[in-house]
Amino acid sequence: MLRPQDTATRERKNLNGLWAFRLDAEGAGRSAGWWRDGLPAAREMPVPASYNDIVPDLEVRDHVGDAWYQTTVRVPKGWAEERVVLRFDSATHRAVVWVNDTEVARHEGGYTPFEADVTAHVTPGEQARVTVVVNNELTWETVPPGRIEDTPRGRKQKYYHDFFNYAGLHRSVWLYSTPAAHVSDITAVTGLEGAAGTVHYTVASESAADQAVRVTLRDAEGVTVAEGEGAEGTLRVEDVHRWAPGDGYLYDLEAALVASDGTVVDSYHQSVGVRTVEVDGTRFLINGEPFYFTGFGKHEDAAIRGKAHDDALMVHDFELMEWLGANSFRTSHYPYAEEVLDYADRHGVVVIDETAAVGINLGLAGGIFDDVKRVTFSDETMGEPLQRTHLQAIRELIARDKNHPSVVLWSIANEPESDTPESRKYFEPLFAEARRLDPTRPLGFVNVMLAPAGKCLVSDLADVVMVNRYYGWYVNTGDLETAEAELEKELRAWAEGQGKPIIMTEYGADTVSGLHSVVDMPWSEEYQDRLLAMYHRVFDRIDAVVGEQIWNFADFATSPGIFRVDGNKKGVFTRERRPKGTAFTLRRRWNKDA
Ligand code: BDP
């Protein structure tokens, strides 16, 4: 799915700002038709933002159900001959959209974009009313899953993942124009042949028979290095400048739709990083060279704005990661804003790209986040309806992110149940579909501690073993010596059993900034530091370990509970991005110049 762009033939209008907003726990707006008029009794709400922490009221923070947003936009009068599209970069977790009185879009899933051709519903030069109802309910059929309980205080949302269920319009909203005939999708797959690079392109378009596709590949200086004709083909670049970790070199692939008289009808610019990714035995290769992941599992999370995308926060986080010498991160536990992947592309940061399938595990999470023990995969809990939503989430992730050179590995779920025959049955079709959609990238999922080497029945479907382990924290608490022995034993079992590269996608310890101890005391800054150092010693002893991503980059908000103190504190930075002591140790490990 192409991002909106300003080009010679296209224009964008950003709809961010203050929108009229109103919660609707009873669902009254859908029957009363609130889209037909101004929202009754509305307050103002920023877009993008999670609405939860904007208002100092638990009713807002813990709201379950519909939330209405409304704004008006004047459609540029210069768009008279154009196709007009309304695009939401995300709406968490689902939305219905109206333009004036007409429903134009519905979308399920809180972290991927959707759009509607609204040409027939707007008049260039005039105002249009845009109304969106965003719903945040999580059920057995949603990704991520959850369950709603009736309590004396009203409906309460339960969920099985460890981050706060922020909701609202978290990313930009756009009105944009394209010509009626237009480029609708581009897929670029790159290869290397010695010093040369190849770019296989496929351009989809909605166009007339006498219009043809023409592609031009330019280097970073704007010099044309290859050209092609037709909707599909392979371009060759001699002496290619490769995209590589730390070197985010991008070419510009312009796809133009050209009429028989030579007029350019539509033009779209797709960034392309020429690189290869493959798994060879226990090695993870980028451009044929072994790559070792250093970095973090992150969250889109900050005070006040919740999960909203924010350029200042994004650039700051990337600068902090660079200061540490981190070369990668995982988009735990959902697809991040496209701005983040674009930045990673430009700066040579390596990304493990994850769906929002987190908490598919009632063995683990059921005991922590719920009071009732249930079976994970069953007709009453997580069954075929969830699997269908999950498949769609995989499709939308790959459709959105397939052209990012920074994305080197797909993660289709975090810590699902994976040690039962039911889990294997659930995951087989998901792996098959992801492979069909993208045969070019390695594929995996993140394994949970409850399904260790020898017990996991899903890992053999993956190209890479990704594991989250908490030796020294949830088990062997405060005992780093036993933790070290157990960690090493398990990693060796993975290495021997699977013969695949292993990435430790989570390890860490909750740490209260400012709490100090001379002995191994969980929650202290020194314990975090010593626990991480212990993991690093073990990783350095096992060749098959090709990556270390600490949990977490920064402290983050969770649902309230007796095992969280104002959120999860496993950050190497606080939520305000101040370093804990271990940041300086990491900087010495990862940033060889520091
Ligand atoms: C893992 C989850 C992650 C949690 C982390 C923790 O993948 O989302 O935040 O543990 O407990 O189970 O800190």
TrEMBL record:
Signal peptide region: none
Residues annotated as domain Glycoside hydrolase family 2 immunoglobulin-like beta-sandwich: 181-275
Domain Glycoside hydrolase family 2 catalytic residues, every copy: 277-591
InterPro entries: Beta-gal/glucu_dom_sf (IPR036156), Galactose-bd-like_sf (IPR008979), GH (IPR017853), Glyco_hydro_2 (IPR006101), Glyco_hydro_2_AS (IPR023232), Glyco_hydro_2_cat (IPR006103), Glyco_hydro_2_CS (IPR023230), Glyco_hydro_2_N (IPR006104)
EC identifiers of the protein: 3.2.1.31
Pfam families found in the cross-reference section: Glyco_hydro_2, Glyco_hydro_2_C, Glyco_hydro_2_N
Single GO molecular function: beta-glucuronidase activity
Cited NCBIfam families: PRK10150.1
Family: Belongs to the glycosyl hydrolase 2 family.
Official protein name in the record: Beta-glucuronidase
Organism phylogeny: Bacteria, Bacillati, Actinomycetota, Actinomycetes, Kitasatosporales
